[in-house]
Amino acid sequence: MSEELDNNEEPINKTPDYLGENEDTSGETITKVTGMFRDWFLDYASYVILERAVPAIEDGFKPVQRRIMHSMKDLDDGRYNKVANIVGHTMQYHPHGDASIADAMVQIGQKDLLIDTQGNWGNILTGDRAAASRYIEARLSKFALDVVYNPKITGWQASYDGRKKEPINLPVMFPLLLAQGAEGIAVGLSTKILPHNFLELIDASIKHLQGKRFTLFPDFPTGGIVDIENYQDGLRGGKVRSRARINQLDKNTLVITEIPFGTNTSSLIDSILKANDKGKIKLKKIEDNTAAEVEILIHLPGGISPDKTIDALYAFTACETSISPLGCVIEDNRPLFIGVSEMLRRSTDRTVELLKSELEIQLHELEEQWHYASLERIFIENRVYRDIEEEETWEGVIAAIDKGLQPHIKHLKRPVTEDDIVRLTEIRIKRISKFDIDKAQQKIDSLEDQIAQVKHHLSNLIEYSIDYFKRLKKEYGAGKERKSEIRVFDDIEATKVVIRNTKLYVNREEGFVGTSLKRDEYVTDCSDIDDIIVFTEDGTMMVTKVDAKTFVGKGILHVAVFKKKDKRTIYNMIYKDGLRGPTYVKRFAVTSITRDKEYDLTAGNKGSKVLYFTDNPNGEAEVVTVLLRQSGSIKKLKFDLDFADLLVKGRASKGNIVTKHPVKRIELKEKGLSTLKPRKIWFDDTVQRLNVDERGELLGEFTKEDRLLIINQKGMVKTVIPDLTLRFDDDMIVLEKWDPKKPISAIYWEGEKELFYVKRFLIDNPDRDESIITEHPKSYLERVFTDYRPVTEVVFVKDRGKDRKDNLEINLEEFIAVKGITAMGNQLTKEKVLEINPLESLPYEAPEPVPAEEIDVVDEEDVSADDASNDNDTTGDDQEPPIDEEGQTMLF
Description:
The protein is built from 17 helices and 50 strands. By secondary structure, it is of the alpha+beta class. A hairpin with a 6-residue loop joins strand 6 and strand 7. The longest helix has 42 residues, at 340-381.
């Protein structure tokens, strides 16, 4: 049924006034949310933001936390209260259920700052929940009583039902919000303020008051290691990386002693087991021995590298987490996004204002006490009370006292009021009879001293505030040292540490590679996150991700796991350019590519074909024999080609001409040696890792035979192959390139004999970890030297009544001969030693090694997905090969 309307007539809206409906061309009805729905939503969003999820900047509390703290002060009598009782009391102020109050109270209690807990309050390390609120007890901590409460300077408001009064904000005189941290999700916004160290916050507050600069970094109750390079003062867009502390307990066991923030041992172990199930890491078993301290033992199968496993734990499990802070607080009933430095400044400034208010109230109270004490003395000393004996009315009594006081009150600091006189009338006769003028004067003098002191504090408010923070640090700082170690993290490449959990196969004729081709040729072990590189007979190269079955092109020559930025794997290739073109030779590395893009390694002419191809992990350059077909007047049908004569270029280079004549075949004549320079390796102390990027201290140039010497403070000595995935302990004292012919000298304290011993030794078994010192628990390593001719100074203890013994200078080379590493060595001295200091070593000229002939590696530039400009590069080698009559460079 249709309706006809006049031009001035409104259509009748069949829906309520808070809904609007429109019909689009497709016939669908669109309902718009307007009116009450809009208002209700905004009211709800505002309530959640202001009254539930986001803390106030003034005291750092969310409403439920503030009400809990207020209730605890109401109930405080110095003894523990049942949490259920506190929760019930809090419900007078908080218009929500008991569960939300109990959960909020447990969270406050677990932070171990404001609440003194008793009973099972759960465990943040294991994730165990607290016992029911009827079984656990709590009371306010001394710190909370000191810094949170002062009813005289607290603003009050009516509770939700109007029956009680609750604080608008508590007068917190400490950056509590930053100490505890806060997290909440509201409507349309969230907050995540990370916890910071108690002592560092106090130091920062003092620096702010002194006008100095300061920086703040998070400190987590679970400990661990944190990277704060991108913290960005806790603002939106910042990031903190948190890692578990993982150490190697023995050859096949790792131990986790601290966990990342936001995790617990249960969730951490679950993530490790999932990574093991997916084949990312390989474990034997896990033991969780966590009690008061975290201890998770990870047992590894034989042959698994502990260093790579540690990296894999960080790469594939919750042993490393990324936290995105977001500093959002409530100020003047509006959300405010600020950094932690500004939060601390505002908190410190507010503390100064609160201290000022306290002092002003204290000054007023002291002055009132002085005023009344002075009035009382005048009233009694001058016997003013006798003037009221003949008065019959109350008004007459007041007037008589007022008249009697007038001659004596000129020194008072304010006028005498009727209330003052009424108070004088309440003095008992017994007190008047025992009044002591000297004691009264002493009390007035004491009050004057206190008033002077308070006035001094007010006139020196900043110094007073600094002393206040120093007092907090002294009284409550014990045991609150930083738990999380700040360190810059190294970036772990997942492909380098993942366990090869599957096998790669190839069907060369059909052109397929994958993990499901189990009937075809086995290539290598790989992981499901690896990339594979493929070369085909037509000179095409492609890198693709490992999959069950992937078509890459027929005529596959070579398949391998691709290593990104690998400059040491060199490919040697000879190819024919087109059907009738010359034959070229080239050496190249592949360091970067665009995945699944086909790259032509030839000159680009149709019909090109690869005649010879090898991959060489260390840049080996072989010698091949090239055999030509008989054609025309060619005389020399056979010649040798040495790849060592060629420079290594990028994959896009065209190469050098081998011959213009048809090639019959190419045969390997002689395997080659590496043509790459020894690899320079640096140690970056910031991240405690090796690198080839020139970061940190240069350790030297390493061939595949060279090793690193490592000695730690416990006296363990070992040599290792310099793998970039190696991890190093914090107590490492020696890290250098190992020279097998250079003796190591050590001075250690032998615990059983209680004497210092000296030993010099060579490492006979480089694959074994050995100890320099004896097994006695009191034995320790004092000094270790890796120079050829070390010298040390021994300083002796000065005994009373004896002549002072001169310091002894010892040439360790002459003191003891080189022996085995297990030898005890010689006694250093029987005298009492104060200290042992290293001196400058004696000169020694080591024989210079004979340099080997080397060929430079020309690095390949990175190629992005849009950069194809190098694909037609025909740059040849830097040497000048012979030129034929047509101007073409030739090797033959």
